[in-house]
Amino acid sequence: MPRLHRLPRLRSTGLALAVAASVFALAGCSEPAPPADDPSAAATDPGASEAPVEEPTPFEIACDELLSADDVYAYNPNFGNAPDYEPAADGVLGVEEEAGTTCGLLNQTSGALIEFGVATPPEGALEGRKNDAALGSKPVPTYGTPPEVEGYFSVTGEHGEAQVFTGEYWIVVDSVDFVEPGDAQVLVAAILENLAA
Q: Domains of the chain by range and CATH?
C-alpha cells in the first residue's frame, strides 16, 4: 500500500498561513472605521479637529455708567449702592460667567436688593442665552421693539427677572421687588439708554 505524502500539504498550508500573516502585518492592525453617521467617527479620526471654544470678551464698565445716581433716584430714592455686593441671582451669575459687569443696589429702608449686569457673550453663547430666555420667560414688548431689542420677564420663587438682548449686549435685572415686567421697566430703559450713549 502506498504511503500518503502529507508533508507537501503541510508545507503549502504553512506557506498560505505565512503569506496571510505577512499581508496582515503589512496592512497594519487596525479596527474598521466607524460609519460616517457614527457620532464617534470624529473622535477616532486623527485628522478631525474639535470646534474651537468661544471665550467671552470681558465687558468692564463702571456700575454708575450702567445706572447713574440720577437713574437710581428716578426709580426709587431709597436705593443706593450695595456695599460688599456679590452676585447671587441666577441670571446675574450667568452674566458673571460671560465675563460681564455685575452690580447691586440696596434699598436702605427694606433691605431689598436689586442685582443687574451686562455682558457681551460670544455669538453662539448669546444665541443660547436668548433661546433659554425665550423658553423660560414671557416676552415683554415694552422693553423695546424686536428684533433690535428682545425683552423677557420671569418670576422664580420670590424673584422677578428681566432679561434684555440688544446688539451684542445681554442685560439682566433681578429683584424680589419685581413682581411683573413693569416693575423693572424704568431700570431697563435707563440701562439701554446708557449703553446706547
A: 63-196 (3.40.1000)
